């Protein structure tokens, strides 16, 4: 290995994962220089990373492609702060977060049913101030009405939305397969909290969770309880004898699942999974709904919808 040209070593390392490259640099000195190479880390980055970075709401500074890779493993806010892009650190696969403002939430424009709340701990980007519509709270802090993100180190969207009262709960997000990594299995998660002292009616009737891509769908149920425990039952369905975007050759039986509490205190609810072949552009629809019950419910706080590799 000592006599191999640098290009050959880079080719070898690029066949593995970013994690493998970092480990190789530690265990063998022959890999050390190659593991720092811009050529290598450019291969680990998504082909369209420069275009994505150009959409960022804040400048992104970096000295090397390796540094850029690890900076992009944290959310990069794009689309006027309504969407976030990041890469999976272990594989380099593309991930996205859709803010609550980017989702279709039935009746969310009506303050009787939903309440939009700023993330108070955020520090907003003053460079965007001239383009923001602002409103003033009773404690005299100016905040953006929609979209714009806080200090990027907080990795948080500017707003969340809390359910006050409704009998019709419907939340849906959409994303195009063309912006995702090809030949990759993805899962979609709804990122929520339960406002314990204001929550009611959430656990009366299970919610349906659904992911649809072409002929494929991943369907299940989820029961929200006021103590933030989530129980899920999921099944995955594909059109007979079809190999479509999102399909897989083997499907799991119904599995009881529990929503996971994240390190940041939010709860993630799995909506389903799909396989992105990347051969053609399709729309992925991801939803949670409870529209059959006639009872009122409230106290669910929605932050975002996250799409990331399994």
From TrEMBL:
Q: Which InterPro entries match?
A: F-box-like_dom_sf, PP2-like
Note one Pfam family from the annotation: PP2
Domain of life of the organism in this record? Eukaryota
Q: What is this protein called?
A: Phloem protein
The protein's organism comes out as: Helianthus annuus
Q: What is the lineage of its organism?
A: Eukaryota, Viridiplantae, Streptophyta, Embryophyta, Tracheophyta
């Amino acid at each position: 290995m000592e006599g191999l040209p640098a290009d050959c070593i880079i080719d070898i390392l690029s066949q593995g994962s970013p994690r493998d490259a970092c480990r190789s640099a530690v265990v063998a000195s022959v890999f050390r220089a190659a593991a720092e190479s811009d050529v290598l880390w450019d291969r680990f980055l998504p082909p369209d990373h420069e275009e994505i970075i150009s959409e960022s709401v804040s400048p992104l500074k970096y000295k090397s492609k390796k540094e850029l890779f690890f900076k992009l493993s944290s959310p990069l806010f794009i689309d006027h702060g309504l969407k976030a892009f990041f890469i999976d650190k272990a594989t380099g696969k593309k991930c996205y977060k859709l803010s609550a403002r980017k989702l279709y939430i039935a009746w969310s424009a009506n303050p009787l049913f939903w309440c939009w709340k700023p993330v108070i701990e955020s520090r907003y980007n003053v460079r965007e101030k001239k383009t923001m519509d602002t409103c003033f709270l009773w404690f005299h802090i100016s905040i953006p009405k929609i979209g714009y993100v806080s200090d990027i180190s907080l990795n948080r969207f500017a707003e969340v939305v809390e359910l006050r009262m409704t009998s019709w709960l419907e939340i849906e997000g959409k994303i195009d397969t063309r912006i995702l990594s090809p030949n990759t299995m993805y899962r979609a998660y709804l990122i929520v909290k339960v406002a314990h002292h204001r929550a009611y009616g959430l656990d009366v009737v299970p919610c349906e969770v659904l992911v649809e891509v072409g002929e494929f769908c991943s369907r299940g149920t989820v029961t929200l309880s006021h103590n933030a425990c989530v129980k899920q039952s999921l099944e995955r369905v594909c059109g007979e004898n079809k190999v479509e975007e999102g399909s897989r050759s083997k499907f799991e039986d119904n599995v009881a699942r529990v929503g996971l509490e994240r390190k940041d205190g939010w709860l993630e609810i799995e909506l389903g999974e799909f396989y992105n072949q990347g051969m053609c552009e399709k729309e992925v629809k991801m939803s949670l709904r409870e529209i059959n019950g006639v009872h009122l419910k409230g106290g669910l706080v929605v932050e975002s919808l996250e799409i990331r590799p399994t």
